[in-house]
Amino acid sequence: MSRKQAKHNNERKNPKGKVSTGSLVRAIAKRTGVTQVDTDKVIKSLIAQIQMEVFDNNNQVSLVNLGKFWRKEVKPNNNEIIKRVNSSKKMKPKYALTFRTSANIRHELANRVKKDSDSII
């Protein structure tokens, strides 16, 4: 397979605007000089640690210049409400991982959008 075909296949798997974990690992490894295997381990352990802190320990995780992760209870849908009414056992609440970007990222994004809109005019 030629490079052009491989690039085309990769673009179909990951449409523009979406970054896969593998490409993120390669970029970070290249930038830091750490091996891709070690970078992948760090990213996976960071995600696992965030999940453990949020779901198991019910803690809020704040990463400076990135944002906050926390646990939020998901409201039941109509089918779940009917099941709860008809069931004698108490159903466990469901939770979702919630993320809010930091103010720095929001300001940076707003500035980039403004620059892009200024260049169009």
UniProtKB/TrEMBL annotation:
Region Disordered: start-end pairs: 1-24
Gene3D superfamilies recorded: IHF-like DNA-binding proteins (4.10.520.10)
Annotated InterPro entries: Hist_DNA-bd, IHF-like_DNA-bd_dom_sf
Pfam families: Bac_DNA_binding (PF00216)
Top-level taxon: Bacteria
GO molecular function: DNA binding; structural constituent of chromatin
Protein name: DNA-binding protein HU
